[in-house]
Amino acid sequence: MADHYARRRAGDEQTRLPVLRWEESADGPLLVLLDQTRLPGEEAETVCADVPAVVAAIRSLAVRGAPLLGITGAYGVALAAARGADVEAAASRLAQARPTAVNLRYGTELALDAYRSAVAGGVEQAAGAALAAARDLHREDAAASARMAGHGLELLDELLSGGEHRILTHCNTGALVSGGEGTAFAVALAAHRAGRLRRLWVDETRPLLQGARLTAWEAARSGMPYTLLTDNAAGSLFAAGEVDAILIGADRIAANGAVANKVGSYPLAVLARYHHVPFIVVAPTTTIDPVTPDGPAIEVEQRAADEVTRLPGGGRPLAPGGTTAYNPAFDVTPPELVTAIVTEEGAVCPVTGDGVMGLWRRSQGS
Ligand code: MRU
Known about the structure:
The protein has eleven helices and 15 strands. Helix content is 39%, strand content 19%. The longest helix is centred in the middle third of the chain and has 38 residues. The strands form three sheets. A seven-stranded mixed sheet has the order 7-6-5-8-11-14-15, with helices on both faces. It has a four-stranded antiparallel sheet with strand order 1-4-3-2, with helices on one face. The chain has a four-stranded mixed sheet with strand order 12-9-10-13, covered by helices on one side. The site of 5-S-methyl-1-O-phosphono-5-thio-D-ribulose has 17 residues, from helix 2 and strand 10. 5-S-methyl-1-O-phosphono-5-thio-D-ribulose binds next to helix 2 and strand 10. This is Methylthioribose-1-phosphate isomerase. Its EC number is 5.3.1.23.
């Protein structure tokens, strides 16, 4: 396993690193990932030469966010195939690296199916088919991102009757999680480009600070007017009438429209309902899971206590030694609290199981 870091500081010659790329080296193919645990201080890459390295990058959140996890899973299968590893076992390890984002399973299975369909022609041909499937998914996700941005801005303008919007977002849903410009963040960016974003309120997103470290970084790079707040400050912001809409992503959307997303999303949905503010979920149809019937059927990842009891990165203790912690990575918002779900195939508003499954079927061409 080759797992080394190539480091660059922000401001160096190359300011925009790709989030994920496939590279052919003298020692064989590599999957090169922008290490998101090191942002915003450092733009560093982690280089994966085999599936255990990819699984470690997924578990540590070096690579993260539902759509990008799907793309990573697909390239991971291609890597196993190109390196002559046991592709079935590799796909199973990749798919199980994190349990909630259904995109990871989707991307992994997509590349595995391509591999299986071509394997009669030889392993080299099958490896090529897996890589082609990963590349297609990467491209399609970029296209989906652009379409979601368009549909999302249209819906925002409709729900808020034009004007400039003050949008609150949670976690990180921009170019760092996608082949394109992201999901919810891409809608806010479209509003900014159209001159209709008054302010992006960025929840810091405890405990791993995806909002503070990543969304604020992306917003600053895009020149958006943004303000960071602690997750607990959202309530007073609503009470002050400073939020026009919430835009968040999703890790899995159940067949009835229940939405799993970063922990802290559900309390925002409750706040939004009380304050009559639209709670809008933006996600590609690859995040809809037709075999998960409802919210309780979604497995929520539980993470280590030290993410809560210590400063991020395993730093200074924040609690006495031996303190236990409740640390779910996600929570589930029931469909009745979701104003709309926006996908590349269009939006459902109000959210119903039929509407969500209609979008999913459209994405399958049926
Ligand atoms: O634990 P993470 O950082 O992978 O969680 C990411 C989120 O919860 C995002 O909001 C979600 O994946 C949607 S990204 C389009």
